[in-house]
Design a protein that fits this description.
- InterPro entries: Cu-oxidase-like_N, Cu-oxidase_2nd, Cu-oxidase_C, Cu-oxidase_fam, Cupredoxin, CuRO_1_AAO-like, CuRO_3_AO-like.
- Keywords: Glycoprotein.
- The chain has 542 residues and is mainly beta.
- It folds into 3 domains: 119 residues, Cupredoxins -  blue copper proteins (Immunoglobulin-like); 164 residues, Cupredoxins -  blue copper proteins (Immunoglobulin-like); 185 residues, Sandwich (Immunoglobulin-like), CATH 2.60.40.420.
- It contains 5 helices and 36 strands.
- The strands form 8 sheets. Strands 9, 10, 12, 14, 15, 16 and 18 form a 7-stranded mixed β-sheet that branches. A 6-stranded mixed β-sheet has the order 24-21-29-34-31-32, with no helix packed on it.
Protein backbone atom coordinates (compact mmCIF):
# COMPACT_ATOMS: atom_id res chain seq x y z
CA UNK A 1 0.00 0.00 0.00
CA UNK A 2 1.55 3.31 -1.07
CA UNK A 3 1.81 6.37 1.13
CA UNK A 4 -0.92 8.21 -0.81
CA UNK A 5 -3.32 5.27 -0.54
CA UNK A 6 -2.55 4.88 3.15
CA UNK A 7 -3.22 8.56 3.76
CA UNK A 8 -6.53 8.35 1.93
CA UNK A 9 -7.51 5.36 4.07
CA UNK A 10 -6.62 7.25 7.22
CA UNK A 11 -8.75 10.23 6.20
CA UNK A 12 -11.63 7.93 5.24
CA UNK A 13 -11.51 6.15 8.59
CA UNK A 14 -11.44 9.49 10.39
CA UNK A 15 -14.52 10.68 8.54
CA UNK A 16 -16.36 7.41 9.09
CA UNK A 17 -15.68 7.43 12.82
CA UNK A 18 -16.62 11.05 13.45
CA UNK A 19 -19.88 9.86 14.98
CA UNK A 20 -17.85 8.12 17.71
CA UNK A 21 -15.81 11.14 18.72
CA UNK A 22 -16.39 14.76 19.49
CA UNK A 23 -16.13 16.51 16.15
CA UNK A 24 -15.16 19.78 17.83
CA UNK A 25 -11.95 18.32 19.23
CA UNK A 26 -8.79 18.48 17.09
CA UNK A 27 -7.45 15.56 15.08
CA UNK A 28 -3.81 14.54 14.89
CA UNK A 29 -2.70 12.13 12.17
CA UNK A 30 0.20 9.69 12.31
CA UNK A 31 1.49 7.24 9.70
CA UNK A 32 3.82 4.64 11.20
CA UNK A 33 5.76 1.90 9.44
CA UNK A 34 6.93 -0.87 11.78
CA UNK A 35 10.11 -2.64 10.64
CA UNK A 36 13.03 -4.64 11.92
CA UNK A 37 16.37 -2.88 11.97
CA UNK A 38 19.86 -3.16 13.41
CA UNK A 39 20.31 -1.42 16.75
CA UNK A 40 23.32 -1.25 19.07
CA UNK A 41 21.91 -0.28 22.49
CA UNK A 42 24.63 -2.05 24.52
CA UNK A 43 27.32 -1.83 21.86
CA UNK A 44 26.42 -5.13 20.21
CA UNK A 45 24.26 -5.49 17.11
CA UNK A 46 20.72 -6.66 17.76
CA UNK A 47 17.58 -6.91 15.68
CA UNK A 48 15.25 -4.23 17.00
CA UNK A 49 11.73 -3.10 16.20
CA UNK A 50 11.70 0.38 14.70
CA UNK A 51 8.85 2.78 14.00
CA UNK A 52 9.54 5.00 11.00
CA UNK A 53 13.18 3.93 11.39
CA UNK A 54 13.36 5.19 14.97
CA UNK A 55 14.28 3.45 18.24
CA UNK A 56 12.59 4.46 20.50
CA UNK A 57 9.60 5.31 18.33
CA UNK A 58 8.17 8.77 17.58
CA UNK A 59 6.76 10.84 20.42
CA UNK A 60 3.00 11.43 20.46
CA UNK A 61 2.25 15.07 21.28
CA UNK A 62 -1.37 15.75 22.16
CA UNK A 63 -3.74 17.92 24.19
CA UNK A 64 -6.66 16.81 26.36
CA UNK A 65 -9.57 15.48 24.21
CA UNK A 66 -7.51 15.31 21.00
CA UNK A 67 -8.43 12.58 18.53
CA UNK A 68 -5.38 10.55 17.47
CA UNK A 69 -5.58 8.77 14.12
CA UNK A 70 -2.60 6.40 14.00
CA UNK A 71 -2.17 4.27 10.89
CA UNK A 72 0.19 1.39 11.69
CA UNK A 73 1.65 -0.62 8.80
CA UNK A 74 3.20 -3.92 9.85
CA UNK A 75 6.34 -4.60 7.82
CA UNK A 76 7.49 -7.36 10.18
CA UNK A 77 7.26 -11.05 9.32
CA UNK A 78 4.93 -11.73 12.25
CA UNK A 79 1.67 -10.29 13.63
CA UNK A 80 1.93 -7.07 15.61
CA UNK A 81 -0.10 -4.84 17.95
CA UNK A 82 0.54 -1.59 19.79
CA UNK A 83 -1.01 -0.74 23.14
CA UNK A 84 -1.18 2.62 24.91
CA UNK A 85 -0.07 2.40 28.53
CA UNK A 86 -2.26 4.77 30.58
CA UNK A 87 -4.52 6.02 27.77
CA UNK A 88 -7.94 5.14 29.14
CA UNK A 89 -9.81 4.61 25.85
CA UNK A 90 -13.02 5.99 27.33
CA UNK A 91 -15.97 3.84 26.16
CA UNK A 92 -13.63 2.36 23.57
CA UNK A 93 -11.72 -0.78 24.60
CA UNK A 94 -11.87 -1.65 20.88
CA UNK A 95 -8.69 0.45 20.49
CA UNK A 96 -6.74 -0.87 23.48
CA UNK A 97 -4.29 -2.88 21.38
CA UNK A 98 -3.94 -6.07 23.44
CA UNK A 99 -4.96 -9.51 22.20
CA UNK A 100 -7.98 -9.59 24.50
CA UNK A 101 -9.48 -6.72 22.52
CA UNK A 102 -7.83 -6.65 19.09
CA UNK A 103 -6.85 -9.06 16.35
CA UNK A 104 -3.16 -8.66 15.48
CA UNK A 105 -2.14 -6.72 12.40
CA UNK A 106 -0.98 -9.39 9.91
CA UNK A 107 2.42 -9.01 8.22
CA UNK A 108 2.22 -6.72 5.24
CA UNK A 109 -1.06 -5.12 6.34
CA UNK A 110 -2.14 -2.05 8.27
CA UNK A 111 -4.63 -1.03 10.92
CA UNK A 112 -5.72 2.47 11.85
CA UNK A 113 -6.21 3.15 15.55
CA UNK A 114 -8.74 5.88 16.34
CA UNK A 115 -8.06 7.07 19.89
CA UNK A 116 -9.31 10.00 21.91
CA UNK A 117 -7.36 11.15 24.96
CA UNK A 118 -10.65 12.08 26.59
CA UNK A 119 -10.43 13.96 29.90
CA UNK A 120 -6.76 13.09 30.39
CA UNK A 121 -3.49 14.89 30.94
CA UNK A 122 -0.05 13.57 31.74
CA UNK A 123 2.84 11.35 30.74
CA UNK A 124 2.49 7.83 29.34
CA UNK A 125 4.01 5.53 26.71
CA UNK A 126 3.02 3.06 24.02
CA UNK A 127 4.54 -0.37 23.48
CA UNK A 128 4.16 -3.56 21.39
CA UNK A 129 1.90 -5.93 23.29
CA UNK A 130 2.19 -9.29 21.50
CA UNK A 131 4.58 -12.08 22.39
CA UNK A 132 7.86 -10.63 23.57
CA UNK A 133 8.11 -7.77 21.04
CA UNK A 134 8.57 -5.30 23.89
CA UNK A 135 12.08 -6.72 24.38
CA UNK A 136 12.98 -5.50 20.87
CA UNK A 137 11.81 -1.89 21.17
CA UNK A 138 8.77 -0.47 19.42
CA UNK A 139 7.96 1.77 22.39
CA UNK A 140 7.68 5.56 22.57
CA UNK A 141 6.44 8.41 24.73
CA UNK A 142 2.95 9.91 24.95
CA UNK A 143 2.47 13.47 26.18
CA UNK A 144 -1.01 14.84 26.90
CA UNK A 145 -0.87 18.58 27.65
CA UNK A 146 -3.59 20.53 29.42
CA UNK A 147 -5.94 22.66 27.36
CA UNK A 148 -4.95 26.34 27.28
CA UNK A 149 -8.00 27.33 29.35
CA UNK A 150 -7.08 24.97 32.22
CA UNK A 151 -4.67 26.31 34.87
CA UNK A 152 -1.56 24.24 35.53
CA UNK A 153 -0.11 24.39 39.08
CA UNK A 154 3.39 25.45 38.03
CA UNK A 155 4.89 27.99 35.59
CA UNK A 156 5.52 26.82 32.02
CA UNK A 157 8.93 25.12 31.92
CA UNK A 158 11.65 26.23 29.51
CA UNK A 159 11.69 22.76 27.94
CA UNK A 160 10.07 19.35 28.12
CA UNK A 161 12.06 16.10 27.89
CA UNK A 162 10.78 12.53 27.64
CA UNK A 163 12.99 9.91 29.29
CA UNK A 164 12.25 6.25 28.52
CA UNK A 165 14.42 4.13 30.80
CA UNK A 166 14.55 0.47 31.69
CA UNK A 167 16.43 -2.80 31.71
CA UNK A 168 17.64 -4.43 28.49
CA UNK A 169 18.73 -7.88 27.34
CA UNK A 170 21.44 -8.54 24.77
CA UNK A 171 19.51 -11.56 23.44
CA UNK A 172 16.97 -10.94 20.69
CA UNK A 173 13.31 -11.03 21.64
CA UNK A 174 12.80 -14.37 19.85
CA UNK A 175 15.51 -15.98 22.00
CA UNK A 176 13.98 -14.59 25.20
CA UNK A 177 10.56 -15.84 24.16
CA UNK A 178 12.02 -19.31 23.49
CA UNK A 179 13.49 -19.39 27.01
CA UNK A 180 10.07 -18.68 28.50
CA UNK A 181 8.29 -21.10 26.17
CA UNK A 182 10.63 -23.86 27.30
CA UNK A 183 9.47 -23.35 30.89
CA UNK A 184 12.51 -21.51 32.22
CA UNK A 185 13.03 -18.12 33.84
CA UNK A 186 14.78 -15.27 32.06
CA UNK A 187 18.40 -14.54 32.96
CA UNK A 188 19.25 -11.24 34.61
CA UNK A 189 19.19 -8.24 32.26
CA UNK A 190 22.47 -7.23 30.66
CA UNK A 191 22.17 -3.50 31.16
CA UNK A 192 20.00 -0.41 31.32
CA UNK A 193 19.02 2.05 28.62
CA UNK A 194 18.00 5.70 28.58
CA UNK A 195 16.12 6.58 25.40
CA UNK A 196 17.50 3.52 23.65
CA UNK A 197 21.15 4.13 24.47
CA UNK A 198 23.70 2.90 26.95
CA UNK A 199 26.01 4.89 29.23
CA UNK A 200 26.54 8.54 28.27
CA UNK A 201 24.79 7.87 24.96
CA UNK A 202 22.23 10.63 25.37
CA UNK A 203 22.60 14.30 26.26
CA UNK A 204 19.95 16.74 27.53
CA UNK A 205 20.95 20.38 27.00
CA UNK A 206 19.65 23.05 29.38
CA UNK A 207 20.22 26.76 29.95
CA UNK A 208 21.56 27.80 33.33
CA UNK A 209 18.90 29.26 35.61
CA UNK A 210 15.93 27.78 33.76
CA UNK A 211 13.52 25.03 34.82
CA UNK A 212 12.69 21.95 32.75
CA UNK A 213 10.07 19.21 32.87
CA UNK A 214 11.28 15.62 32.68
CA UNK A 215 8.69 12.92 31.89
CA UNK A 216 10.23 9.66 33.07
CA UNK A 217 8.81 6.18 32.34
CA UNK A 218 10.10 2.73 33.22
CA UNK A 219 9.64 0.84 29.93
CA UNK A 220 11.74 -2.14 31.03
CA UNK A 221 10.82 -5.81 31.22
CA UNK A 222 11.68 -7.11 34.69
CA UNK A 223 13.27 -4.50 36.97
CA UNK A 224 12.41 -1.50 39.13
CA UNK A 225 14.76 1.46 38.72
CA UNK A 226 15.93 4.50 40.65
CA UNK A 227 16.37 7.85 38.86
CA UNK A 228 18.57 10.75 40.02
CA UNK A 229 20.58 13.72 38.71
CA UNK A 230 23.98 14.65 40.07
CA UNK A 231 23.80 17.82 42.17
CA UNK A 232 20.13 18.53 41.40
CA UNK A 233 16.82 18.10 43.22
CA UNK A 234 13.60 17.03 41.52
CA UNK A 235 10.20 18.57 42.20
CA UNK A 236 7.47 16.00 41.56
CA UNK A 237 4.49 17.55 39.74
CA UNK A 238 2.58 14.72 38.01
CA UNK A 239 2.01 10.99 38.43
CA UNK A 240 0.30 9.25 35.48
CA UNK A 241 -2.17 12.04 34.85
CA UNK A 242 -2.59 13.35 38.40
CA UNK A 243 -1.06 16.63 39.55
CA UNK A 244 0.79 15.67 42.71
CA UNK A 245 1.66 17.45 45.88
CA UNK A 246 4.93 19.11 44.93
CA UNK A 247 7.43 17.26 47.09
CA UNK A 248 11.17 17.48 46.46
CA UNK A 249 13.22 14.31 45.95
CA UNK A 250 16.91 13.63 45.44
CA UNK A 251 16.09 10.30 43.77
CA UNK A 252 12.92 8.57 42.68
CA UNK A 253 11.99 4.89 42.51
CA UNK A 254 10.11 4.08 39.31
CA UNK A 255 8.63 0.61 39.07
CA UNK A 256 7.79 -1.29 35.90
CA UNK A 257 5.27 0.51 33.72
CA UNK A 258 5.16 3.66 35.87
CA UNK A 259 5.52 7.28 34.71
CA UNK A 260 6.36 10.50 36.58
CA UNK A 261 6.90 14.17 35.74
CA UNK A 262 9.47 16.22 37.67
CA UNK A 263 10.70 19.78 37.40
CA UNK A 264 14.48 20.29 37.49
CA UNK A 265 16.08 23.73 37.74
CA UNK A 266 19.54 24.20 36.22
CA UNK A 267 20.77 26.08 39.31
CA UNK A 268 24.26 24.64 39.64
CA UNK A 269 27.65 25.87 38.31
CA UNK A 270 27.91 25.70 34.52
CA UNK A 271 29.24 22.26 33.72
CA UNK A 272 27.91 18.81 32.82
CA UNK A 273 26.21 16.48 35.30
CA UNK A 274 25.36 12.78 35.38
CA UNK A 275 21.79 11.56 34.99
CA UNK A 276 21.79 8.12 36.62
CA UNK A 277 19.43 5.15 36.38
CA UNK A 278 20.16 2.06 38.49
CA UNK A 279 18.35 -1.16 39.28
CA UNK A 280 16.44 -1.69 42.53
CA UNK A 281 15.99 -4.89 44.55
CA UNK A 282 18.52 -6.87 42.47
CA UNK A 283 21.48 -8.91 43.72
CA UNK A 284 23.73 -7.26 41.14
CA UNK A 285 23.14 -3.51 40.78
CA UNK A 286 23.23 -2.33 37.18
CA UNK A 287 23.43 1.34 36.28
CA UNK A 288 23.67 3.62 33.28
CA UNK A 289 24.13 7.34 32.75
CA UNK A 290 23.17 10.20 30.47
CA UNK A 291 24.43 13.76 30.54
CA UNK A 292 22.70 16.94 31.72
CA UNK A 293 24.63 19.49 29.69
CA UNK A 294 24.54 23.19 30.58
CA UNK A 295 24.63 25.17 27.34
CA UNK A 296 27.35 27.41 28.82
CA UNK A 297 29.20 24.49 30.35
CA UNK A 298 32.75 25.17 31.40
CA UNK A 299 33.63 21.52 31.88
CA UNK A 300 32.61 17.92 31.41
CA UNK A 301 31.16 15.62 34.07
CA UNK A 302 33.38 15.10 37.07
CA UNK A 303 33.56 12.66 39.95
CA UNK A 304 31.74 9.36 40.21
CA UNK A 305 28.04 9.22 39.38
CA UNK A 306 25.95 9.69 42.53
CA UNK A 307 24.97 6.49 44.30
CA UNK A 308 21.40 5.56 45.10
CA UNK A 309 19.34 3.08 47.07
CA UNK A 310 19.80 -0.57 46.17
CA UNK A 311 17.75 -3.17 48.07
CA UNK A 312 16.14 -1.02 50.79
CA UNK A 313 12.41 -1.76 50.77
CA UNK A 314 11.39 0.48 53.69
CA UNK A 315 12.97 3.50 51.97
CA UNK A 316 10.95 2.83 48.83
CA UNK A 317 7.74 2.19 50.78
CA UNK A 318 8.03 5.48 52.65
CA UNK A 319 8.65 7.34 49.41
CA UNK A 320 5.58 5.68 47.85
CA UNK A 321 3.45 6.78 50.80
CA UNK A 322 4.67 10.36 50.36
CA UNK A 323 3.00 10.62 46.95
CA UNK A 324 -0.09 12.75 47.45
CA UNK A 325 -2.74 14.34 45.29
CA UNK A 326 -2.73 18.12 44.81
CA UNK A 327 -6.28 18.78 46.01
CA UNK A 328 -6.52 22.38 44.77
CA UNK A 329 -5.02 21.90 41.30
CA UNK A 330 -7.19 21.34 38.24
CA UNK A 331 -6.85 18.10 36.34
CA UNK A 332 -7.99 17.83 32.72
CA UNK A 333 -11.12 19.79 33.69
CA UNK A 334 -11.26 23.10 35.57
CA UNK A 335 -12.68 21.65 38.79
CA UNK A 336 -10.12 20.94 41.53
CA UNK A 337 -8.82 17.38 41.80
CA UNK A 338 -9.93 17.32 45.44
CA UNK A 339 -13.59 17.79 44.48
CA UNK A 340 -13.85 14.03 43.89
CA UNK A 341 -14.16 12.66 47.41
CA UNK A 342 -13.22 9.04 46.75
CA UNK A 343 -12.95 8.28 50.46
CA UNK A 344 -16.64 9.02 51.03
CA UNK A 345 -17.89 6.54 48.42
CA UNK A 346 -19.07 3.16 49.64
CA UNK A 347 -17.32 0.30 47.92
CA UNK A 348 -19.62 -2.15 46.14
CA UNK A 349 -17.18 -5.04 45.99
CA UNK A 350 -13.86 -6.25 47.39
CA UNK A 351 -11.51 -8.22 45.14
CA UNK A 352 -8.38 -9.81 46.57
CA UNK A 353 -5.74 -10.80 44.02
CA UNK A 354 -2.89 -13.02 45.15
CA UNK A 355 0.07 -13.73 42.89
CA UNK A 356 1.95 -17.01 42.70
CA UNK A 357 4.71 -18.68 40.67
CA UNK A 358 3.57 -22.28 40.14
CA UNK A 359 5.08 -25.06 38.07
CA UNK A 360 2.38 -26.43 35.75
CA UNK A 361 3.07 -29.45 33.55
CA UNK A 362 6.74 -29.17 34.42
CA UNK A 363 7.05 -25.55 33.27
CA UNK A 364 7.36 -22.26 35.08
CA UNK A 365 4.11 -20.29 35.03
CA UNK A 366 2.73 -17.31 36.94
CA UNK A 367 -0.81 -16.98 38.24
CA UNK A 368 -3.43 -14.78 39.93
CA UNK A 369 -5.78 -16.45 42.42
CA UNK A 370 -4.41 -19.80 41.19
CA UNK A 371 -5.31 -19.10 37.53
CA UNK A 372 -2.53 -18.82 34.95
CA UNK A 373 -3.92 -17.01 31.92
CA UNK A 374 -3.71 -18.55 28.47
CA UNK A 375 -4.49 -16.60 25.32
CA UNK A 376 -7.74 -17.60 23.56
CA UNK A 377 -7.99 -18.29 19.84
CA UNK A 378 -10.25 -15.23 19.42
CA UNK A 379 -9.99 -11.80 21.11
CA UNK A 380 -12.31 -11.73 24.10
CA UNK A 381 -13.94 -8.47 23.06
CA UNK A 382 -14.90 -9.92 19.68
CA UNK A 383 -16.16 -13.14 21.23
CA UNK A 384 -18.29 -11.11 23.63
CA UNK A 385 -19.65 -8.84 20.89
CA UNK A 386 -20.51 -11.65 18.46
CA UNK A 387 -21.68 -13.94 21.30
CA UNK A 388 -19.25 -16.71 20.31
CA UNK A 389 -19.46 -19.46 22.89
CA UNK A 390 -16.53 -21.47 24.16
CA UNK A 391 -13.91 -18.70 24.02
CA UNK A 392 -14.20 -17.66 27.68
CA UNK A 393 -16.56 -17.95 30.59
CA UNK A 394 -17.54 -15.26 33.08
CA UNK A 395 -16.29 -15.99 36.57
CA UNK A 396 -13.36 -18.09 35.42
CA UNK A 397 -11.29 -16.30 38.07
CA UNK A 398 -12.51 -15.85 41.65
CA UNK A 399 -12.72 -12.62 43.68
CA UNK A 400 -10.52 -14.13 46.38
CA UNK A 401 -7.49 -16.44 46.52
CA UNK A 402 -8.61 -20.04 46.41
CA UNK A 403 -5.61 -21.62 48.08
CA UNK A 404 -5.88 -24.47 45.60
CA UNK A 405 -3.47 -25.73 42.98
CA UNK A 406 -2.76 -23.52 39.98
CA UNK A 407 -4.26 -24.29 36.58
CA UNK A 408 -4.40 -22.86 33.05
CA UNK A 409 -7.50 -20.89 32.01
CA UNK A 410 -8.59 -17.92 29.91
CA UNK A 411 -9.62 -15.93 32.96
CA UNK A 412 -12.30 -13.22 32.78
CA UNK A 413 -13.85 -11.47 35.78
CA UNK A 414 -17.18 -9.69 35.43
CA UNK A 415 -17.82 -6.24 36.94
CA UNK A 416 -20.86 -3.97 37.00
CA UNK A 417 -20.63 -0.59 35.29
CA UNK A 418 -20.67 2.29 37.77
CA UNK A 419 -19.60 0.09 40.67
CA UNK A 420 -16.83 1.23 43.03
CA UNK A 421 -14.40 -1.57 43.78
CA UNK A 422 -11.76 -2.19 46.42
CA UNK A 423 -8.92 -4.27 44.98
CA UNK A 424 -6.19 -5.70 47.16
CA UNK A 425 -3.02 -6.98 45.45
CA UNK A 426 -1.32 -9.51 47.73
CA UNK A 427 2.29 -10.49 47.13
CA UNK A 428 3.52 -13.49 49.18
CA UNK A 429 6.71 -13.70 47.12
CA UNK A 430 10.19 -12.27 47.67
CA UNK A 431 10.23 -9.98 44.62
CA UNK A 432 8.65 -6.56 44.10
CA UNK A 433 5.74 -6.65 41.67
CA UNK A 434 4.02 -4.05 39.53
CA UNK A 435 0.38 -4.15 38.37
CA UNK A 436 -1.41 -2.21 35.64
CA UNK A 437 -5.11 -1.91 34.85
CA UNK A 438 -6.12 -0.78 31.37
CA UNK A 439 -8.98 1.66 30.91
CA UNK A 440 -8.96 3.04 34.44
CA UNK A 441 -7.27 5.24 36.98
CA UNK A 442 -7.40 4.14 40.61
CA UNK A 443 -6.67 5.53 44.07
CA UNK A 444 -3.77 3.90 45.93
CA UNK A 445 -5.33 3.94 49.41
CA UNK A 446 -2.83 1.75 51.24
CA UNK A 447 0.26 -0.45 51.14
CA UNK A 448 2.11 -2.27 53.88
CA UNK A 449 4.03 -5.40 54.77
CA UNK A 450 2.47 -8.65 55.95
CA UNK A 451 -0.98 -10.04 55.30
CA UNK A 452 -3.91 -7.79 54.40
CA UNK A 453 -6.95 -8.09 56.63
CA UNK A 454 -10.16 -6.05 56.99
CA UNK A 455 -8.61 -4.09 59.87
CA UNK A 456 -5.98 -2.84 57.41
CA UNK A 457 -8.63 -0.42 56.15
CA UNK A 458 -8.14 1.64 59.29
CA UNK A 459 -4.78 2.73 57.85
CA UNK A 460 -6.10 3.72 54.40
CA UNK A 461 -5.52 7.25 53.10
CA UNK A 462 -9.07 8.33 52.25
CA UNK A 463 -8.30 12.00 51.66
CA UNK A 464 -5.45 12.81 49.30
CA UNK A 465 -3.74 9.71 47.94
CA UNK A 466 -2.42 9.66 44.40
CA UNK A 467 -4.47 8.20 41.56
CA UNK A 468 -2.68 6.35 38.79
CA UNK A 469 -2.89 3.27 36.53
CA UNK A 470 0.20 1.25 37.62
CA UNK A 471 1.14 0.40 41.19
CA UNK A 472 3.87 -1.60 42.92
CA UNK A 473 3.43 -4.33 45.53
CA UNK A 474 6.46 -4.88 47.74
CA UNK A 475 7.71 -8.37 48.69
CA UNK A 476 5.56 -10.16 51.27
CA UNK A 477 3.28 -7.13 51.25
CA UNK A 478 -0.05 -5.84 49.99
CA UNK A 479 -1.33 -2.80 48.12
CA UNK A 480 -4.97 -1.70 48.19
CA UNK A 481 -6.71 0.51 45.64
CA UNK A 482 -10.16 2.02 45.18
CA UNK A 483 -11.31 2.03 41.57
CA UNK A 484 -14.45 3.51 40.01
CA UNK A 485 -15.76 1.04 37.42
CA UNK A 486 -16.68 3.87 35.09
CA UNK A 487 -15.51 2.56 31.72
CA UNK A 488 -17.44 -0.17 29.92
CA UNK A 489 -15.26 -2.64 28.04
CA UNK A 490 -12.90 -5.61 28.25
CA UNK A 491 -9.84 -4.47 30.20
CA UNK A 492 -6.48 -6.15 30.76
CA UNK A 493 -5.28 -6.45 34.38
CA UNK A 494 -1.64 -7.52 34.19
CA UNK A 495 1.72 -7.80 35.80
CA UNK A 496 4.09 -5.26 34.29
CA UNK A 497 6.92 -7.75 34.71
CA UNK A 498 6.79 -8.90 31.11
CA UNK A 499 7.96 -12.46 31.76
CA UNK A 500 5.24 -12.89 34.37
CA UNK A 501 2.63 -11.35 32.12
CA UNK A 502 3.68 -13.59 29.22
CA UNK A 503 3.52 -16.70 31.41
CA UNK A 504 0.05 -16.05 32.76
CA UNK A 505 0.01 -13.35 35.44
CA UNK A 506 -2.87 -11.40 33.96
CA UNK A 507 -6.62 -11.58 33.42
CA UNK A 508 -9.41 -9.50 31.89
CA UNK A 509 -11.99 -7.40 33.70
CA UNK A 510 -15.27 -7.23 31.77
CA UNK A 511 -16.99 -4.02 32.87
CA UNK A 512 -20.54 -4.58 31.70
CA UNK A 513 -23.57 -2.35 31.13
CA UNK A 514 -26.88 -3.99 30.16
CA UNK A 515 -28.02 -0.78 28.42
CA UNK A 516 -26.20 -1.58 25.14
CA UNK A 517 -26.07 2.15 24.46
CA UNK A 518 -23.58 4.36 22.65
CA UNK A 519 -23.77 6.51 25.76
CA UNK A 520 -21.91 3.75 27.62
CA UNK A 521 -19.75 2.21 24.88
CA UNK A 522 -18.87 2.95 21.28
CA UNK A 523 -19.91 0.37 18.68
CA UNK A 524 -17.43 -1.97 17.05
CA UNK A 525 -15.19 -0.02 14.64
CA UNK A 526 -15.99 -0.43 10.98
CA UNK A 527 -12.33 -1.24 10.28
CA UNK A 528 -11.97 -3.78 13.12
CA UNK A 529 -9.75 -6.70 12.15
CA UNK A 530 -11.40 -10.10 12.53
CA UNK A 531 -9.63 -13.36 13.34
CA UNK A 532 -10.11 -16.71 15.03
CA UNK A 533 -13.75 -17.68 15.37
CA UNK A 534 -14.81 -14.15 14.45
CA UNK A 535 -13.62 -14.60 10.85
CA UNK A 536 -16.43 -14.13 8.36
CA UNK A 537 -18.51 -11.96 10.70
CA UNK A 538 -19.59 -8.42 9.86
CA UNK A 539 -18.61 -5.32 11.82
CA UNK A 540 -20.79 -2.43 10.64
CA UNK A 541 -21.62 -1.46 7.06
CA UNK A 542 -19.64 1.41 5.60
Amino acid sequence: MGLYTSLCCVILVALLTVTCTNGEDPYRFYNWNVTYGDIYPLGLKQRGILINGQFPGPQIESVTNDNLIINVFNSLDEPFLLSWNGVQQRRNSWQDGVFGTNCPIPPGQNFTYVLQVKDQIGSYFYFPSLGFHKAAGGFGGIKIASRSVIPVPFPPPAGDFTILAGDWFSKNHTDLKAILDSGNNLPSPDGLLINGRGSNGFTFTVDQGKTYRLRISNVGLTTSINFRIQGHKMLLVEVEGTHSLQNTYSSLDIHLGQSYSVLVTADQPAQDYYIVVSTRFTSQVLSTTSILHYSNSAGSVSGPPPGGPTTQIDWSLEQARSLRRNLTASGPRPNPQGSYHYGLINTTRTIRLTSSAPIIDGKQRYAVNSVSFIQPDTPLKLADYFKISGVFSIGSIQDNPTGGGAYLQTSVMNADFRGFAELVFENPEDTVQSWHIDGHSFFVVGMDGGQWEPASRLRYNLRDTISRCTVQVYPNSWTAIYMPLDNVGMWNVRSENWARQYLGQQFYLRVYSPANSWRDEYPIPRNALLCGRALGRRTRPL
